[in-house]
């Protein structure tokens, strides 16, 4: 039977600088979704990469005294290194300087021009260089760029324009008739009320003031503006062809199931991109999900504020899965989340060391102490076991439901509920008391089996979120039974297997000492 396909993409990282933890959140979130879909048996295609053209890149390369291509080559390596540090399982890492992509972007532009969607005119407006965007006076916030808050300046140049208003009515009706197209709901309302309903304006889609971009083939002094170039990546790297010779891969995976993006680039993905696709006669992506920001305290991270955290630094101090857990658990579904050293340490100590690490360690240690680490069959069940077993067996459906709704933090909570309930079960059954009574040996073996199997099922569900931790738990249990089918019944550990030695999975951290150490390093 052919597997059902699932295509998820992240926004492509702009190569103007090293991605900070806020940028990294998106790839980790996408990775958990992609891994969980694979776990469910989907044929997953997960695409990410780098956006490498534009005026800002040209400037940065000039400042560094190197050619733009060399500059983006270095930055793309750095982005990919960080995505790999975070143990993300993307299928394809794309780069917009790829020659085949550039050629197809030029063809897309020409097609839109030939069919009358793009025309040549003159742009006069207020321009933000970092965002590479023109704005009207009314769009500014306190006289500054509405996207990044920096200064804008008056600019005028010859440019090509996309006739956005031509498709405005279609887009409004499409969004209204597809309630799941933009999520969360608050983002959809923002796009409709702030941009679409007040009326769309023609969009500037070429530039002449710099050369680092995809050239307009029929007017060489123009380069194609970053949004047509960058957004097209979702189809060009799958093998989309304007002339109708698209690849099998494109026909298989398009439309995308989810474009996962930051809320700050929602406008481009929910207005410009659907209109471009519609003008090309292509299907819409099924869902565009605008995730929240990761804030440092109450502030957006920025170099000027000196409050940027980088994923690789955090991993050095706390480990990959601890940071994955923090990002996936602590950033809510639709509102901004906060990151700080003390919050990371609290979460590691309470959830990872106390709830999970302690459970695994004490259960395997008891098994070693009382039965030499040999797993015995559960032959002395009691009614009090049923609640734990039912909670464990029903967890998969609850986790899957939450993941289908992209409520990743709540999905993790469902898994940790297994570990919390198991800890409570230890207190209720008191294995150390059972061990003192020779007649309770079978009951003790059953209690330990229930705990070990609950841990195994929790670890199996944890694979998408904390892959290394899951692997380590399954190793300590000496089992490779990590498939979804093994969650249907409460008997996934074979009788007679010999558990490996327990090792602490997460150590508790001395908060005051660790924060002092980090502050000294950052001085």
Write down the oligomeric state. Answer: single chain
Backbone shape = elongated
State which percent range the strand residues make up.
5-15%
CA radius of gyration is 27 Å
Overall strand count: 17
The mean pLDDT is 94
Helix percentage? 40-55%
What's the number of helices?
Answer: 19
Give the class from helix and strand content and strand pairing: alpha/beta
Query: Alpha-carbon distance between the termini?
Result: 59 Å
The low-pLDDT segments are: none
Strand count, sense and closure of the main sheet?
Answer: 7 strands, parallel
Summarize the structure.
By secondary structure, the chain is an alpha/beta fold. The chain has helices at residues 21-39, 55-64, 68-85, 99-114, 168-177, 185-196, 226-231, 233-236, 248-253, 266-279, 311-318, 320-330, 341-371, 385-404, 408-429, 431-434, 441-461, 467-476, 511-521; strands at 5-10, 13-14, 43-51, 92-95, 118-128, 133-135, 153-162, 182-183, 203-204, 206-207, 214-215, 223-224, 258-262, 288-291, 294-296, 299-300, 337-339.
């Amino acid at each position: 039977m052919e597997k059902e396909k699932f295509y998820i993409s992240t926004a492509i990282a702009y190569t103007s600088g090293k991605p900070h933890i806020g940028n990294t959140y998106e790839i980790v979130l996408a990775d958990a979704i992609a891994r969980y879909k694979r776990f469910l048996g989907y044929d997953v295609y997960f695409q990410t990469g780098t956006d490498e053209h534009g005026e800002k890149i040209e400037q940065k390369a000039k400042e560094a005294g190197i050619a733009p291509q060399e500059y983006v080559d270095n930055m793309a390596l750095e982005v990919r290194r960080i995505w790999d540090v975070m143990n993300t399982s993307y299928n394809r890492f794309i780069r917009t300087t790829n020659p085949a992509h550039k050629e197809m972007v030029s063809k897309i532009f020409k097609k839109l021009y030939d069919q009358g969607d793009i025309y040549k005119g003159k742009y006069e407006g207020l321009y933000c260089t970092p965002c590479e965007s023109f704005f009207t006076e009314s769009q500014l916030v306190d006289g500054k760029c509405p996207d990044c808050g920096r200064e804008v300046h008056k600019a005028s140049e010859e440019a090509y324009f996309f006739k956005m208003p031509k498709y405005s009515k279609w887009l409004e009706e499409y969004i209204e008739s597809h309630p799941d197209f933009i999520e969360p709901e608050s983002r959809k309302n923002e796009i409709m009320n702030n941009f679409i309903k007040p009326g769309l304006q023609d969009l500037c889609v070429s530039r002449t003031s710099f050369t680092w971009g995809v050239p307009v083939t029929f007017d060489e002094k123009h380069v194609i503006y970053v949004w047509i170039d960058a957004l097209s990546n979702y189809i060009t790297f799958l093998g989309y062809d304007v002339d109708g010779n698209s690849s099998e891969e494109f026909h298989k995976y398009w439309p995308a199931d989810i474009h996962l993006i930051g809320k700050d680039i929602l406008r481009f993905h929910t207005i410009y991109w659907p209109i471009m696709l519609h003008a090309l006669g292509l299907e819409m992506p099924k869902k565009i999900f605008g995730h929240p920001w990761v804030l440092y305290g109450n502030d957006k991270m920025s170099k000027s504020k000196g409050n940027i955290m980088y994923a690789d630094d955090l991993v050095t101090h706390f480990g990959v899965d601890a940071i994955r857990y923090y990002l996936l658990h602590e950033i809510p579904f639709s509102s901004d989340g906060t990151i700080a050293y003390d919050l990371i340490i609290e979460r590691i100590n309470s959830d990872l060391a106390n709830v999970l690490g302690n459970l695994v360690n004490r259960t395997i240690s008891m098994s070693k102490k009382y039965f030499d680490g040999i797993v015995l069959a559960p032959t002395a069940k009691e009614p009090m076991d049923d609640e734990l077993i039912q909670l464990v067996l029903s967890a998969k459906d609850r986790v899957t439901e939450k993941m289908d709704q992209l409520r990743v933090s709540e999905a993790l909570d469902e898994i940790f509920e297994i570990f919390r309930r198991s800890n409570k079960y230890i207190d209720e059954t008191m294995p150390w008391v059972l061990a003192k009574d020779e007649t309770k040996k079978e009951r003790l073996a059953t209690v330990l089996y229930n705990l070990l199997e609950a841990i195994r099922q929790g670890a199996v569900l944890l694979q998408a979120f904390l892959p290394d931790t899951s692997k380590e738990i399954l190793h300590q249990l000496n089992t490779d039974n990590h498939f979804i089918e093994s969650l249907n019944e409460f008997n996934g550990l074979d009788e007679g297997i010999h558990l490996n030695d327990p090792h602490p999975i997460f150590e508790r951290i001395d908060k005051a000492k660790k924060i002092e150490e980090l502050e000294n390093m950052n001085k």
